[in-house]
Amino acid sequence: MKQSSLAESAKSKDQSNEIQTVMQVEISKFLNLMCLRLLKESIRGVISDMVQCAVKPLQDKIVELEAKVEKLQEKTNDNEQYSRRYSIRIYGPSQVPGLVQEGVDEVVPKENCAQTVIDFCKAELGLIVKCEEIDRAHRIGRPSDAGQRAIIVKFVGYESKLKVRRAKRRLRGKRIFINEDLAWLNQKLLKQVREVCKGSALVYTADGYVMVRSKNGEPPVRVRNVEDLDIFGFD
Q1: At 87, which helix (H) or strand (E)?
Q2: Residue 4 φ/ψ, nearest 5 degrees
Q3: Cα–Cα distance, 53 to 61 (Å, whole number)
Q4: Contact, 159 vs 87, CB < 8 A?
Q5: Please, which residues bridge with residue 222 across strands?
Q6: For 92, which DSSP code?
Q7: What is the helix (H) or strand (E) element at residue 79, kind and residue range?
Q8: pTM of this prediction?
Q9: pLDDT of 97-140, one tens digit each?
Q10: Which of 185, 223, 217 has its CA nearest to residue 204?
C-alpha cells in the first residue's frame, strides 16, 4: 500500500511539474508576443514621426510654391488682359467670301475687316467710327452656324472701344454680340461664373474683369475665382 501511495504521489508531483512547466512556457510565449507587439508599435511610431518630420518641410514648400505659381499666373493673366484693353470681339457681321485667284491653290481674302467694322458700327450701332481709330481688325475662330467668323478689333484708343461697347445695347434682340477680348483664364472664369450664377445674378465683364451683381440691388463685385461667389450664397 505504501509503495502504491508513494507511486501515485510521485506521479501527481510529476504531473504538477509538467503543468507548471507548460504554463511557464505559455506565459513566456505570451510575454514575448506582447513585448514584440509593443516593440513593433514603438518602431512604427518612431518611423512615422521621422517620416512626418522629413515630409512636413516638403509639404510646406509645395504649398508655398503652389501659392507663388498661382500669383504668377494671376499676374501674367492681368498683364495679358491689360494688353487687350483696347480690343473687342464682334460676333455676327457678314463675312465677305474669299476670292480664288487663277493659278493659286489658296483662297485670298478680299475682305477689308476694318471697313467691315466701320460699316457695322454705322448700320447697327448708329456710330461713326473713323479708319484712324482702328489699329487692326481681322477674323478669328471657327465659323458660326451661319458661317460667320468673329472679328477682333483693336482700337487706337480706349475711348473708341468704350463708345462701341456702350452702344451694344442697340443690338438687343439681334443675333449680334460685342464682347471684350478676354485673356484665356478670364474666358474660362467667365464661363464658370455664368454657370454658377445662372438665373441668380447678372454676370458681365468690365475692362477685362469678371463682375457679378446680385438681384437684390447691391453693388457689383469683382470675381477672381469661383470661390469668391461664396459671399452670395448661391447653391
Answers
A1: strand 87-91
A2: -65, -40
A3: 13
A4: no
A5: 211
A6: -
A7: helix 2-83
A8: 0.66
A9: 654 444 445 555 578 999 999 999 999 999 999 999 999 999 98
A10: 223
